[in-house]
Amino acid sequence: MTERQSCRFMSKLRDSAEAAFDGLNLQGATIAVGGFGLGGVPETLLHALSRNDRARDLTVISLTAGTDELGVGQLIRAGKVRRLIAAYVVRTYM
């Protein structure tokens, strides 16, 4: 079996949101966040990312920036975001 074939069966399930980031280089990473407004946003993953020491200088692409406590806003508040690309931003991060 080749390496490419064995990857096809690799599980994407992790024991926790924090474990989802294991082995990833998060410094300067670009992430895309789904959802509309605050609905459908991967809140648990964003919360874990906001507490991850390796996540910094992120470029975040999202429809909205969330609020101070929810959505992408928690990454902004934690100082993890270098650049935000969004269609709708409410200025509440001061």
Write structural notes for this entry.
There is one protein chain. By secondary structure, this protein is α/β, with parallel strands linked by helices. The chain has one domain. The chain has helices at residues 3-7, 43-50, 73-77, and strands at residues 30-33, 58-64, 81-88. It has a three-stranded parallel beta sheet, with no helix packed on it.
Attribute tags:
94 residues; alpha/beta; three-stranded parallel β-sheet
Secondary-structure-derived class: alpha/beta
**Helical residues, percent:** 10-25%
Unreliable runs: none
Rg to the nearest angstrom?
15 Å
Strand order of the largest sheet: 1-2-3
Choose one word for the global shape: globular
| Arithmetic mean pLDDT | 86
How many strands, which pairing sense, and closed or not: the largest β-sheet? Answer: 3 strands, parallel
- Taken in chain order, the helices and strands follow as HEHEHE
Number of helices: 3
Number of strand elements = 3
Distance between the termini: 54 Å
